[in-house]
Every structure is written in C-alpha cells, then in structure tokens.
Amino acid sequence: MSGSNGFEPKIVAFVCNWCTYLGADLAGTSRLEYPPNVRILRLPCTGRIDTNLVVKAVEGGADAVLVSGCHPGDCHYNAGNYHARRRWMLFRELLDVLGFDMRRIHFTWISAAEGRKFQHVISEITEQTRALGPWRAYEAKAEIDHRGGLVGQAVSPATGRAGPAPALQAPAPLAEQELRDLARRLLGAGDVKVVIGYGAAGPVFVTKAADVERLVWNEGCQANLTTYLKRKEVRALGKPAVVVKGCDERSLVVLEKESQIRREDVRVIGMACDGMGQEKCAACDTHEPRFADERVGKAGGQGGKPAARYAAVEAILAKTPEERLAFWSAEFDRCLKCYACRQVCPMCYCERCIADKNRPQAIDTSPHRKGNFAWHIARAMHLAGRCVGCDECTRACPAGIDLRLLNLTLARAAETQFGYRAGMDPAAEPPIGAYSLQDKEEFIR
Amino acid sequence: MSARISREDLRKLVAEWLAAGKKVFGPVRVKAGLELYAPLDSAEALLLDGWIRPANSIKELVFPRHEALYGYRILKNRVELVDLAAEIPEQIAIGAHPCDAAALAALDKVFNWDYRDEFYNRRRAATTVITMACAAHDDQCFCTSVGLGPEAERGSDALLHERDGGYEVRAISEKGRILLGGLAGETACPTAQTSGANTPPRRFDSAQVAAFAKEHFEDPYWAERALACLGCGACTFTCPACHCFDMVDEGNGREGVRARNWDACQFPMFTLHASGHNPRANQGARQRQRIYHKFVMYPDKFGEVLCTGCGNCSRNCPVGLGVLPAATEIGNG
Amino acid sequence: MDNIYQPDLMEIAGVRQHTPDVKSVKLRFQDPNRAGSFDFRVGQFGIFSAFGAGEATFNICSSSNWKGSIEFCFRKVGRVTEALWDAEEGDTVGFRGPYGNGYPMEAWRGKDLIFLGGGIAMPPIRCAIWYALENRADYGDITIVYGARTVGDLVFVDELDEWARHPRVRVIRCVDPGGQTPDWTGEIGFVPTVFERADVPAKNAIALVIGPPIMIKNTIPVLERMGGAMSNVYTSLENRMKCGVGKCGRCNAGPVYVCKEGPVFTFEELRAIPMDY
Ligand SMILES: Cc1cc2nc3c(=O)[nH]c(=O)nc-3n(C[C@H](O)[C@H](O)[C@H](O)COP(=O)(O)OP(=O)(O)OC[C@H]3O[C@@H](n4cnc5c(N)ncnc54)[C@H](O)[C@@H]3O)c2cc1C
Ligand code: SF4
Ligand code: SF4
Ligand code: SF4
Ligand code: SF4
Ligand code: FES
Q: Ligand 6 test: best mutation among C47, C259, C261, C276, most atoms within 8 Å of CB?
C-alpha cells in the first residue's frame, strides 16, 4: 500500500537483541503482517544505542526512526535501558531545540512476547510518517538567516579579538597585587612548580617567582584555565596552581568526579569576580569561589538573576520547529570544523575524540551541513550533564556559533529533569551514568 | 587618471551584479562583534565601514572548506567515476582587503607548481577581486612587516580608495577593467595616497623570523611559546593563505564522493604515522611548523612570505597566539 | 577538466598474503591505453584507493621493467588498508601516480649495492633489487640484509631465496633475538649488528637503508665505519601524505616536500634539513 503520492516512508528501527528483536521475530513467525518499510538494526542493548546512530539514520535519509528495547526491569544487562532512558530524555530536548521533527523520532519498550505490539507500533509509525511525507531535515532554508539570526545574541568578544571591550566595572587592582603576592609565595616556597594564570595577551605559565608580574587580573580574564590541567605539555611542568573564577571552579568539581584530576595535586587560586562582561555573567551565581585553596578579593555582591538562566532556550523554543531548524542550519553552516570549541573545553579530554575516529566513521569529517549537525549533536551529547557553562567554546569559536544555546539546552534539561547542575555540588550524582526508577518516560510507548 | 564612485553608486553597482545573477561576496555583519565575508543577498548587506577586517577570508571563494573532487559508484567489482565539477558561476569579492587579495597570489603558486589544480584554477578564473584599501588598522595588523600595506595591489583586480564620502576606483587587471567598465581609472590619483594613519607600524623583520626558524629549529623556545596553544584550527582556517587539506571518502558501499576538506598543521593527527610515530610530536613543533612554512619553506620555493599580515590568526586565537606574538619576539633580534 | 586527483581504475590481478597483516597486490590498468603508456621509476610511490574508504600512500614495489602491471605491498593498520585487505582478485581499486623522485638507478651503475631493510620496509627495496638483477651487468656485488622482529614478520621470503641464487648476490636474513623459530637458519640480531658482522666493504658501494627510525639511526654509524659516504647512502621517507603532488601541505620535512622532492634522499641531503620526519 502506498500513499496517494506514491511516497513510501523509510523507517529505521534500532532494537535491542534480547527483547524487541525477539518481539519483531515473533511478529514474523506468527505471520503478523506489518509494513515492509522498516529496516531493523539489532544492537546488544538499548544502552549501547549511541545517539549518533539515530543521527546517522537521519543523514542516510530515514523518514522516521524508532528506538526500542526491553521494558523497565527486564533489561538483559539489568539497567541498560534505564541508562538509555536518561540519555533519550536529554537527546530529545536537544533535537527539539534544534528543530528536528519530533513526530518522527519514536521510543518504545517491546518485549520478546509482544509480537503484536511490534506490529502495531510499526504500522502506526508507518501510517503517521506516510502522512507527514518525506523528512528533509537537512534541507532547511538557511540562506535567508545568515545575518541576524533568530535569537540574535551578541557574541562576546574573545580575548585579543578586535571589537568593543566588554563594559563592566574594572576588577580591583588590589586583587591583582594580592594574586601576584600569592603566586610569588607559592612558587618561592616550592609549593607549586607553575602558576597557570592570565597574562596581558592570553594565558601565562609562570614558573619563577620573579616572573609573577606577568599575571594580570582584569576584565579580559575570560578564559577557563582549568583546561590546561589536561595538556601533557603543561603537566610536564610539575604541580600547578591554577587561577579560577567561581564559574571556572565548577569544571574542577566535574574533573575530579571523573577522576581526571586529584584535588590535592592542584592548588586552586579562586578569584572573586563581579563579571567579565559575558552573557553568562548576567545569570551568574558563583561570584565567589567556593572550593579554592586560596582566595583573592571580594565580589561586589550583586548576585545574578538565576531565573534568567535559561531564557535563551525558552526564547528559541517559542519559535516554530522550522524556524529553529533554519536558525541552526545557518549557525552550523558557518562551522569550519576547526575544533576550537573542543580544544578549549576543560571537559573535552578524550584521548581520541569521536570526531577523529574513522573506524567506524561516526561523524563525517567534512564541514558540510550533515557533518556539522552530526558534530554539534555529538559534542552537545557528550557534554550533557557535564558542561559547566563556562562558555569557552562559544568564546573560542571563530565562526560565532551559538554553542552556548546548545549547552544551555542540555543544562536546562538536566536541571529540570534531574535537579542537577554540573559542578555545583560535589556530592550530587551526575545524571549520566546514573538513573532512577522514577525517571519520566511519558515519551516512551 | 582615476575615476570616482559614490557610496550610493557602489551599492547600485552591487545591486546590478546581483540582479544579473552574479555571486557577490563581501563583508557582512553576522551579529554584533562578528563580521564575515559572506554571499550578499542584497546590496544593503554590504558592510562598508565600522570594522577592521572579517574573521574569515576570501580564500573560501577559490578554495572552499569542503569540495567534492569526484564521485564514485560501485557496481559489484567495477567502479565508475563521476565528474562532479559543476560550472563555476562568475563571482565577485567586493570590499576584500589587500591582505586577502595578496594571499590569492600566493595560493596561485602553490596550486600551480608542476601539477595544476584545476579545481582551484576554475574558481580563481571565475573570481574578480575588488579590494578596498584599508582606512584603519588594529594592533593585530602587520602587513607592513611582510612587504605589503593598506594599499597593496597584489592579487587584486581593482582597488577602491575611500575619499570624501566616495571611492576612487582603479582597475589593476583586465578582469577588473571589464567588470567595472567605464568606471575605473587606470592610475592612482596622487591624492589617493593616504596620510599613513591607516598604516600599521612595522612590528618585526620577516627575514629575522626566517633566520630564527631555520637556525633554532630544535630550540626550546617553540615549546615554551606553544604552552597555551590548544592545537585547534582557528588560526589556520581563518588565515587567507593557509592551504593545507585532507582528502576523505564519504558515502556508503554503493556510491559516494571523494572530497577535500581544510586541514590544520596544528592538529596532532596531521602528521601522525600509522606506526604511531609522529614527526611533530608536540605542540611546539606544530607552532614552529606554521611559522616555518610561512617564513622559510614557502619563501624558499616561491620567493615571498606565505603570510600577508592580516592578523586573523591572532584575532581568532582563543588564547592570544597566532603568528604575531612569536614573530615579534623572534623577528626583532 | 583535467583532474589531478582522479585515479586510474585498476583491476586486482593477484593478491599474496605474506604475514598475518601484510599483503601484496598486483594491479592492472583497466584502460588499455593507460596500460600501454604507463611508466615509472623504481622508488616512486603511488596513492592507492579503496573506494568508500579513502586513499593511502604506498611504494610501488614491482620493477619498472615489468610492463602491464604494478604491485604494492601494505600492512593493515587503518581504514584504507583494512578495506584493501578485504579486496579480492577482480575487484577495482584506484591508483594515482607515479609520484616522487625514485632511485637514481642510472647513477648507481658500476657500483656495489647494499640493501638494508627492516620489517615492512622490504617493498620499497624489492623494486630496486629486481631492477638491479634485471640489469645485472650494470651493477657490482649486491648484498641484501633483511631483518624483522620475528620469522613470521618477514615478507617476500620466497623471493629472498630466488635473489640468493643470482651470481654475486649475498642475502642475509635476520630476526630480532627471541624472534627465531627452532628451524631458523638465518642470523639472530638486529640489522645494523648483523650487517657489521657481515663485513661488507662499503667504500665503493651505494647503500639503500629503509626501516623503522631506530634501525636507521643505528645503521648509519656502521655504514660510516665501513667507509660508506653519506652521499651514497639512500633512504625513502614516509611522511604522511594526502595529495602527493605538493598541494596539501602535509608531507614537508623542513623545507622539502617529501612527495615531490622525495621520498628518496641521501643522508647527506637529510643532514642538511631539520629532523622533521
Ligand atoms: C611515501 C610513502 C610510502 C609508503 N609506502 C608504504 C608501503 O609500501 N607499505 C605500507 O604498508 N605502508 C606504506 N606507507 C604508509 C602508509 O601510507 C600508511 O600505512 C597508510 O596510509 C595507512 O592508511 P590507513 O587508511 O589504513 O590508515 P588510517 O586509517 O589513515 O590510519 C593511519 C593511522 O592514523 C591514525 N588513526 C587515524 N584514525 C584512527 C582511528 N580511528 N583509530 C585509530 N587510529 C587512527 C593511527 O595512527 C593509524 O594507525 C607509505 C607512506 C608513504 C608516505
Ligand atoms: S561545553 Fe563549552 S561551556 Fe561547557 S564546559 Fe565545555 S567549553 Fe565550557
Ligand atoms: S569552534 Fe566554531 S567553527 Fe570551530 S568547530 Fe567549533 S563550532 Fe565549528
Ligand atoms: S598567518 Fe596570520 S597574519 Fe599571516 S596571513 Fe595567516 S592569518 Fe593572516
Ligand atoms: S595558535 Fe591559537 S588558534 Fe592556532 S592552534 Fe593554537 S590555540 Fe588554536
Ligand atoms: S603530500 Fe600533499 S604536499 Fe606532499
């Protein structure tokens, strides 16, 4: 049976080996007829169904995607589906903000005994997709928006980048002196071998007490220097002290939780900060460092407006999915795949990034629209529940892509769904890698 | 004799080109703080002032970040190659900077020594570059340290000089003359020579940079200088003269394309051998390579520096590096 | 449009497996005109492709006297080599080339030849050995020292026997200590040591040394001790390449484009450029 226009939807189903695959098999052996439009791909467990695969299916021309596994409690590996459920919750919010057609992405639990449910689900999805017509996710008209953009947010000027200097009250010169004195003391006493701090033209690595005058503290100190803790060239210098602001400190909390640093191996110099004139500063609630070993200065005290934290996400969600997709297409079309966003991120420490792997090629290396969507979805997902919102990626991007908005989307999802904010509370359980039996699943059939 | 054009007429001219179906690229304000060369959808979009230079470069017109080289179809054990080289429409870069245009002249040589790269040549032939002499500079500009300047002509087909609310127009090549028709004069009007306020000071001596890179190849200087470097592609991808590329296959088991994409010498995997050996095993070696290529290797072969002093690498570097900080240190010996 | 990146389509005319991860492949041009006009110099390389996987650089390991086909030999290490590994006789692969300078075989006439190779480095040496044997009268004594980590890692072993049967050819094989099998009759030791023991006069000889960096590093002093002049000692570099034609900017070692000015260099030449390979 084909639609009146002859359109036959292509549906890709990623199913787990132990339940849904057997359910599909049962449907077959019981001669329960279901449309031939579905292509079933079997994976060991829903926990192993990488969200990249869904993106690949869309890239490959799927008109709808189904992901299905064992019912809660039935997972062959105990909890694979609980973990998957959490990822899907975040993934769906991301796709929604990107403007993907959510009527085409389906999740179900189908057991080995539910041949009939499999038949129903496939028939229904096929019918529904047929009515929707072909999915042209990557053909959004973007040219019209290459200026302005829908959300029209200003990009904070990067350190050293031309443009108006950020307007804010200058941090106290007193703090700068205090910082230098402290660095001199730490280096002089041999407590640390290097102080990673801000210099006049970018990060500096001060190894001699005599050089502490190279350290500055001013409105240009936007970088999150904790990213250097992972670099082998910097590690080779010996025990570091790192200068952080309250916001940067959050990445140390996550890095420690992920066993990337040992807290006692790093001396943390926390700077009280009234803001660096960046967008994130408006909603900042970490003006004072909270975990630092040494503290410098005192913040002026006007707290941010946390209520406004996710305003940008809400603003884009007020647009239609088509408008959102057009917006992101225009944004991603500018992406050069320079990976400055990844390289600057303190949380991106993988020995070999998925974007650099070619067996299999999870993400096209080309900076075309497909390849860029795949990259940005993967990047955002890998940082889901881990991104501390330092906005370094956004600051680093030479193409001015609104990565902040993607990160905020997932941060908002993590906070609203799991009450979690990365790097705020060292005792809190990160959302990814954990699960709760109570996790919402109204989106799963 | 030189000719003049008013601002309004310049926009009118752009509108005419667009109406005639030509692709016109020029500086555009994408959002606050971000100017890029981009295709103009209207003459109004063309940004005529209030910025130093776009964060990208016009090399994209002749050497796009992604370009299919040919397609293939696999039929059992046979393969059929598919010519994907579509016609290149006439394209115009208006409001390019002298540091952009000069880079094209450098790219011409790379893409044509011995083997001729027709992908590049076709685009280059279809492109007319109308350069705007710089009215201002910032502290990252250093064209004068690499033998260029705010009014340099190299690589341009025509040059516009801002004067008294309009522009003096001068054709440099036949292409420029044809495009601008009767509008363009032949020689610079003496009054067009600017006061010098637009000219960045000489910040270093490029011969000294070359000498240092040659003589101090193994110097610890490079590793120290590169400590903050993140190993990204922001500097190379926004550089008008960087031209390294990767070649990849994309497709499925039945058909696909072989394409080239920009690549960056700052990526650790750029030179990684299959054995695990990496000739440039640390970021210092990679930073050295960028300077070495531009100030030693390219000049050795082609007689000029592969850097036009545009400053983009430093402006776009998230951590304040790029060519300039190193060049000022080693080029002022 | 003349497309310098477009490969010739080649049919796989034969596959030989040498070790668990090394194979050599014989290719024939599908276009008969190309087959007739094609020529190359031993020591040159090509860029080979498995469609759908991509391109990889290999030396042409056959002799330029063998008309109508070319051979290459590769180790399975990544995406392209895995795809080539799975290719079978009759399948189509791509080839661009020949690229690079090759060995100056004419200039080597009248000299003794010493070939020193380690592991997978045999292919780029093999083409020169065959070429020299096919023009036997042009060259003096030939010494071949070929070593690998273990007996199972040696490639083209049957040809080693064949070469040894030629007049004035001495073939010495060796494996690293511990890499021998009970029936191993060759030498045990690293190439440089085994070569030194063999005591070959190097004064009037051309030496071609290809292998892992550590082997090369230790062989050079031995050659010097034996009277070899660095202007007569050659190697072939393997800097990573993409275009092969001096455009992609990847392969340079200091000021030289290995793809165009190399891959063959004398050690005299290498000493004049920085250690960037
Ligand atoms: C002039 C020249 C001559 C040569 N001659 C020969 C020859 O005769 N025989 C021969 O066998 N080789 C030869 N080589 C080396 C050969 O070119 C490489 O081994 C080959 O290109 C590997 O290609 P690949 O696609 O299989 O590997 P790739 O997939 O490109 O991987 C190569 C290496 O890159 C890294 N890498 C990239 N992606 C990944 C990933 N996803 N996971 C892990 N690692 C990754 C790893 O280090 C890996 O080993 C030559 C090279 C040159 C320059
Ligand atoms: S993703 Fe961006 S905002 Fe989040 S931690 Fe990384 S650099 Fe900071
Ligand atoms: S920094 Fe910007 S241009 Fe570069 S890869 Fe990231 S998003 Fe793309
Ligand atoms: S190296 Fe830097 S300054 Fe020179 S042309 Fe490239 S981007 Fe411009
Ligand atoms: S110099 Fe700057 S832009 Fe270039 S790789 Fe290093 S961090 Fe990136
Ligand atoms: S391989 Fe591309 S320049 Fe040498």
A: C259
